[in-house]
Specification:
about 140 residues, alpha+beta, Heat Shock Protein 90, 4 helices, about 35% helix, globular, binds adenosine-5'-triphosphate, binds magnesium ion
Length: about 140
């Protein structure tokens, strides 16, 4: 639910690999308003890194496409969305399985979504063929007094 307390950010970047670290640090800096622990901050950086890397290498094939990163701070949690307009995911259930990768030749380990699931409290993946993918992730963070 939205409230007056919410704060948000929206970032648009081309899917160049140099921008992955920028996106990761930008979301972490925004999230620091909730006074997260170092472990929570590290989890946030890791999941942004995994989802943005996925958009860059899987979403867009032989092109550099647009990636939108949204984050919203709520009373007790942080909502992050990573959006691309690339090829989409055919079978989301299969993509979420540990060790599944469509790019074994690139030495991917197929653990990105598994790591995201482990570090976040809620994960929703929405995708449509040739339209793109949205990964929505929620991390609970207790507000400190
Ligand atoms: N944004 C995306 N657009 C299209 N396909 C995607 C996207 N994100 C993930 N996928 C598909 O889901 C699969 C699983 O993703 P996951 O991040 O778990 O593993 P990986 O990227 O292949 O390997 P790793 O993350 O360990 O390097 C990918 O191999 C790819 O087929
Ligand atoms: Mg991955």
């Amino acid at each position: 639910m939205r409230s007056k307390m919410d704060n948000y950010m929206k970032l648009e970047i081309p899917g160049r690999s140099q921008n992955e670290s920028f996106a990761r640090v930008a979301v972490a800096a925004f999230a620091s308003q909730l006074d997260p622990t170092l472990e929570e901050l590290s989890d946030i950086k890791t999941v942004v890194s995994e989802a943005v890397t996925n958009a860059i290498i899987h979403g867009y094939v032989n092109e550099i496409g647009k990636i939108i990163i949204k984050a919203r701070l709520r009373e007790n949690n942080l909502v992050i969305e990573i959006i691309d307009f690339g090829i989409g995911i055919e079978d989301i259930e299969k993509a979420r399985e540990p060790l599944y990768t469509s790019k074994p030749e690139l030495e991917r380990s197929g653990m990105g979504f598994t790591i995201i699931d482990k570090f976040m409290d809620q994960v929703e993946i929405a995708s449509e063929s040739s339209k793109g993918t949205t990964v929505k992730m929620v991390k609970n963070i207790e507000k400190k007094k």
